[in-house]
Amino acid sequence: MNPERMASLVARWVRFYTRDLPAPIAERRIDEIDADLHDHIAHDRAAGTSERRIALAVASRMVRGLAADAAWHRRQPKAAARRPLHRSAVRVAVGVAVVLAIPLVGMLLSDGVAWSVADFVAAGVLLATIGVVLELVVRKAGNLLLALVVGGLGVTAAVLGELDDAPGLVLLGLLLIVSACALGVRTARRA
Amino acid sequence: MPRRKPGTLVPLEVEILEVAVSMRRAGHATFHGFGLARRMREQSGSRSLTAHGTLYKALGRLEEFGLLTSRWEDAAAATEGRPRRRLYALTGEGARTAERVSTAAAPRPRVASEPA
Predict the structure, then answer these.
(1) Average pLDDT over residues A19-39
(2) Do B83 and A28 make contact, defined as CB atoms within 8 angstroms?
(3) Mean pLDDT across the stretch A161-167?
(4) Residues B9, B111: contact at Cβ < 8 Å?
(5) How far is A129 from chain B (nearest CA, A)?
(6) Domains in chain A: how many in total?
(7) A65–B34: do the CB atoms touch at under 8 Å?
(8) B32 and A68: CB-CB below 8 Å?
(9) Chain A residue closest in CA terms to B81
């Protein structure tokens, strides 16, 4: 392998481990190592070093620095934590629409399913709450108070569903309780 | 692996500061990553250059500590058909720390202040 191909491999590695970092941090690291690789190869060629030895030296510098790359990466703020809010909103909205489509289709195909507009609204609100809580869990955001409120909402929905003989409401209540537990665990781990 | 105490320098960081001081004495107020790695290899008599990850992680730490500053070189300087370099320079605190640690016996000297 010639030095340029080895440098290309190193550059790909740098782009890989910086892929989830904020652009300014990633670009600085990428550009800095690109310049280093260029200077390294140019210097060694000028010194009369063989192509094979240059390629090996470049590879050696990459391999010996892997642990430091990983440690450096862990200390950097992650771009994923700053994902645009609108993407989360779209995900939640699509999720709610997909789930609500199930009873809607059921009503069209069978007389056994009879949801009123109020049922759809209530289910939509509960599903959206579950979606938002799950987004918070993924983003490692939210707090214990929110987890308690959502948990309380889940218990209320499950109890009301049980009293009203509405298994769908009971299921949503249970899902709310589960997502509240996930949020609570994430919050406790973060503290 | 044991974690370092806050505000301490590891031997590589001390070495970088010492080399930066020697380069400044030689008339090079700024230095770039590969130039530094090359100078460190010459001074230590090592056969290999410091690894990319190790070198740039240490430079980043020293910058966080306020011992180095950095900037991209002017676009005009990169007209030789090569990527632009990140240029580092010792700060006043960095120079003082380098002088202090190079005369101290302790292998892991403490830095004067925590990074902001």
Answers:
(1) 95
(2) no
(3) 81
(4) yes
(5) 39
(6) 2
(7) no
(8) no
(9) A38
Q: What is the pTM of this model?
A: 0.61
Contact A62 B85 (CB under 8 A): no
A34/A122 same-domain check: no
Rounded Cα distance between A52 and A5, Å, is 11
Last residue of a domain, one of A46, A80, A114: A80
What residues of A are in contact with residue B68 (Cβ under 8 Å)? none
Residue B80 dihedral angles phi and psi, to the nearest 5°: -85, 10
B23-48: burial string, b at 16+ Cβ within 10 Å, e else: bbeeeeebbbbbbbbbbbeeeeeeee
Q: For residue B54, which residues of chain A lie inside 8 Å, CB to CB?
A: 64-65, 68
pLDDT on residue B77: 63
* Last residue of one domain, picked from the residues A29, A54, A80: A80
Q: Are residues A113 and A183 in the same domain?
A: yes
Q: Which residue of B has its CA nearest to A29?
A: B56
Check CB contact of A186 with chain B, cutoff 8 Å: no
Tell me what ipTM this predicted complex has: 0.84
Write the pLDDT tens digit of every residue in A73-89: 999 987 655 556 777 88
Q: Give the domain range for residue A141.
A: 83-190
